[in-house]
Request: fold
Amino acid sequence: VQLVESGGGSAQSGGSLRLSCTASGFSLDDYSIGWFRQAPGKGREGVSCLSGPDGRSVYGNPVKGRFTISSERGKNTVHLQMSSLKPEDTAVYYCTTFTNGCYEWSFDYWGQGTQVSVSS
Reply:
């Protein structure tokens, strides 16, 4: 299993960024994939999950209505469109597979992470 993130960077409050994650070693049809983030001095926080078997999407409360997860099955790639960004969204974002589907924030494999910084 390999997960490679791209995108991220810096944005001003209210702006947008897009993250992408290309998976190898498994098919998005068979596993749930998504994102968690970790801010300095804080623990991991589930951001979003996309269920492979049924296409259901789940979002953490802080990002509901602002972030959208989607996939390109042919490219085995998942995207996270982040809009209306806030300074508190600043964190390292990790692409991850989920141990128990999208039913709980339990992370299995993850990538190297990509930094997202939002200034006020």
